[in-house]
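agent> step 3/5: call structure_predict on target 'GTP cyclohydrolase 1' (Lates calcarifer).
agent> reason: downstream docking stage needs a structural representation; sequence fetched in step 2, passing through unchanged.
tool.input:
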Amino acid sequence: SCVIFSCMGALKTNGCMCNESERNGLCREEKHSEDAADSNNLCHIEKAYSTILSELGEDVAREGLLRTPLRAAKAMQFLTKGYKETTQDILNDAIFDENHEEMVIVKDIDLFSLCEHHLVPFYGKAHIAYLPNKKVVGLSKLARIVEIYSRRLQVQERLTKQIASAISEALEPAGVAVVIEAAHMCMVMRGVQKMNASTVTSVMLGRFHDDPEVRKEFLIRSEY
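tool.output (status=ok):
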């Protein structure tokens, strides 16, 4: 029987090729290994939350808090799942050759993220535009890119730049524009406690940066 060293590409040992079922079996083993690692991480996070609650003076054994550390750990894993996702994964089959050079805008994309300074949420909307250079992308994938980078510990300035850079690298368009407007709970729930404050960030690449008229068209059409 074969001894399998990798599930990527041709699988060989001692000159024999592994069949499809063996390859699938190895991939399942790697998936189980990943699941085991995730479970181990979940356990550590759960214990950390239990410690935090105890240090805050709570009784983690009382009924209302019995499963809170586990729930919080699962929530944190979900809220930071973007660390395990890449733009290559989602764009692999969604970029198409198309003779289109006019502006494409997707606006009002909901986003939710965690401020890396206080681990409290900030949320708002992203507006994205790009000028195709013979390539277009499935529109839902722009929202997925926002999701990948927002599901990490973030600051809004970096989030805006990462979204724009990811689109630029994937499509090589003539220009990319990203504007994000968000409310930060670190300014609402604590600190200065300004309920109506919002933060606006923008990144303009290519013609959106170099040509004021192109930038103006985007801002008008996105109603920003």
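agent> step 4/5: record observation. Confidence is low (pLDDT under 50) at residues 1-18.
agent> proceeding.
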